[in-house]
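Re-run with default settings, no changes from the original entry. Doing this only to confirm the output is reproducible before filing.
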Amino acid sequence: MTRSDPARPRGRKRAEQVAFGLVQDIVARGQHAGDKLPHEAELLAEYGVSRSSLREALRLLEVQGLVTIRPGPGSGTEVGGIDPANLASTLVLYLMMQRVNMDQLLDAWGMVEPLLADLAARNPDRARVRALMDPFATGAVRQDRAPASGLAFHEAVADLSGNPVLNLVLGAVGVLVTDQVRTGARDFRLSDATVDAHEAIADAILAGDGPGAAAAMRRHLDEVKQEIRQALPGYHRNIYLPD
């Protein structure tokens, strides 16, 4: 393999190395969202890099939502949060380069969501299960037909799965699906069938019925796929960068 071979992994730039170091140190210090990072002078001394490399590293992390840079009075850098939407903003670029279409995106989503529903039903923290599923099972959010409401349901199921990897990755895919629909079909609203399906899935999760929750989720996503196909005239075209 030569240097010109496109399959050869490229070496990390200095700023990327610093970005990785910053994240490792955030974790090692036990910091969480909102905690302050050391001042720039301290970071420069700690990492032994130029100001331009440090600032580029911080910008890389800021784009990912992993830090927040606050200018002006009270300025400084804070630890950010873990938001699937930030991962989605990067993931969509890779999927665009791969010429992925909406059908393939939904297929991938549909393969894993039933597993999440099964895991959510088996979650031993039944108080948390009730807190997240009751609003959907009781119809408390039935009148909210915005796509974001559907995303909130799937995020709650992913949360209850207890697997942070699946939660983050599938959360990002869910954001991508919602953004594609929001951009391509601005009048799209959750159907009665979707709301009914959310109630049925929530009921199965509350009952601790893993196989039932998985089966209900599978049926639901099959229905959603057909609804989106009808709503998006460019359904089979490659996905695009949302507005």
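The longest strand covers residues 67-70. Residues 210-231 form the longest helix (22 residues).
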